[in-house]
């Protein structure tokens, strides 16, 4: 089990390779290629030996919860109703799918995946897509409140990851 956890943490560094990002761009441009694009993303996930993939900015109109042909569990949330902005999700490998205790991708900016590793050990993964600095203060405040609510429940391990829309500047 600890080898699998180590492999998962190594895979976190590879979550957004250029190939996965280009597959996501194809999906955003042409929703008719959903099946082919998900297949491509899952194949890329296998190449980097990634068991859990966090996805940001799905821009989907409807959420998707599906079991893929290879046994992967796919849960993608919808974007905000008023605009096609946001949407987060997870793609979990067949090997880790039985450990899923909770997947919640109902919030367009904060997704939660909880895995039960042992009787009492859990991993809580929070995938985020933060508003940009151009967003209204209320939207930014709501985002941080949602993140706080997502990380508040007790878990053995907590991973907070995603697109924080951070700006790096020489200060």
Write the layout of secondary structure elements.
Blueprint: H1 2-12, H2 18-29, H3 34-47, E1 52-56, E2 64-67, E3 73-76, E4 88-92, E5 100-104, E6 110-116, E7 122-129, H4 137-151, E8 157-163
Parallel strand pairs: 7-8
Antiparallel strand pairs: 1-4, 2-3, 3-4, 5-6, 6-7
Give your account of this protein's structure.
This protein is of the alpha+beta class and 171 residues long. It is 30% helix and 26% strand. The chain has 4 helices and 8 strands; from the N terminus they run H-H-H-E-E-E-E-E-E-E-H-E. It has helices at residues 2-12, 18-29, 34-47, 137-151, and strands at 52-56, 64-67, 73-76, 88-92, 100-104, 110-116, 122-129, 157-163. The strands form 2 sheets. Strands 1-4-3-2 form a 4-stranded antiparallel sheet. It has a 4-stranded mixed sheet with strand order 5-6-7-8, covered by helices on one side. Helix 2 (18-29) packs antiparallel against helix 3 (34-47). The longest helix has 15 residues, at 137-151. The chain is globular, with a radius of gyration of 16 Å. The model is unreliable at 1-33 (pLDDT under 50).
Identify the notable features of this structure and list them briefly:
4 helices; 4-stranded mixed beta sheet; alpha+beta; globular; 4-stranded antiparallel beta sheet; 26% strand; 171 residues
Number of strands: 8
Profile the largest sheet: 4 strands, antiparallel
Q: Into which percentage range does the β-strand content fall?
A: 25-35%
Can you give the mean pLDDT? Answer: 78
Straight-line N-to-C gap: 43 Å
Number of helices: 4
Tell me the overall shape: globular
Structural class designation: alpha+beta
Secondary structure: helix percent: 25-40%
Radius of gyration: 16 Å
Q: Which residues form runs of ≥5 with pLDDT under 50?
A: 1-33
